Amino acid sequence: MKARYSVFHNPPQQGEEPENTGIHARLVEQNRIGIDLIAKQISQFSSFSAGDVKGLLTAFQEQLALHLSCGDIVELEGLGRFSVSVKNAPATREKEVTPSKVKFGKVVFRCSKELKRQLEGMSFERSGEGSRLKTRPEAKRKARILAYLENHHTILTSTCRTLNNCSKYLALKDLKELQEEGKILLLGPRNIAQYTAVKDK
User: Fold this and answer.
1) Could you give the CA distance from residue 143 to residue 174 in angstroms, rounded to a whole number?
2) Between the CA atoms of 89, 90, 93 and 98, what dihedral angle is there, to the nearest 10 degrees?
3) Topology of domain 35-116, CATH
4) What are the CB-based long-range contacts (under 8 Å, 24+) for 58-65?
5) pTM for the predicted model, two decimal places
């Protein structure tokens, strides 16, 4: 199976129009693969049942979290290296960086050379979706978002991208401007943002 890509405009720099930027390829139509499917697929090529594999993967996740929470680096031969980064509130003196001020930052994964070599032979094909370079005018994009919200309670940024065949940058720009115009409201934090229409009084 080939990975599907589409072509997008590069994010514009300050003062630059989106249509005047370069272009780049980006993967689209990506499936989210969960532990149940992975366990089932492994069981088909081994003597382990899907339940055994899922139990093993769950136990591995717990051990990985345990070691990372202790500040360890977990290296899996052929896969890569896991570690965590930390962050702290702004400080100017060493004594201000106390244990209570240091927080978890993010999980860092560094891919192994072996895995990179396996992926160098990836096959690609152009997505059957329409060109992402042919962006609708701003007014039409916003109108389609509002029309969608007439029949749905909320809309996601990803839905806007699909609806208007545009980049994440343009989808966020349209949503922000519709907010400023008082036509939609933001629900929830930015990382899981949903938007809803403002009802006429």
Assistant:
1) 10
2) 0
3) HU Protein; Chain A (4.10.520)
4) none
5) 0.62
Are 84 and 107 in contact by the 8 Å Cβ rule? The answer is yes
Average pLDDT over residues 13-35: 76
pLDDT reported for residue 17 = 61
CATH of 3-29+127-197, one of 1.10.4160.10, 2.60.40.1180, 1.10.10.10, 1.20.210.10: 1.10.10.10
* 30-63 pLDDT per residue, tens: 888 889 999 999 999 999 999 999 999 999 999 9
Contact 73, 82 (CB under 8 A): yes
Residue 48 to residue 12: CA distance in whole angstroms = 51
DSSP annotation of 51: H
CA distance 174 to 186: 13
User: How much is the pLDDT for 154?
Assistant: 92
Helix (H, G, I), strand (E, B) or coil at 57: helix
Q: What's the rounded Cα separation, in Å, for the pair 68 and 84?
A: 6
pLDDT at 123 over 70: yes
CA distances from 62 to 20, 48, 55, 59, 178 (A): 48, 20, 11, 5, 43
Q: Which residue has the tokens 């400023």?
A: 180
Check residue 71 and give left, alpha or beta (phi > 0: left; psi -120 to 50: alpha).
left
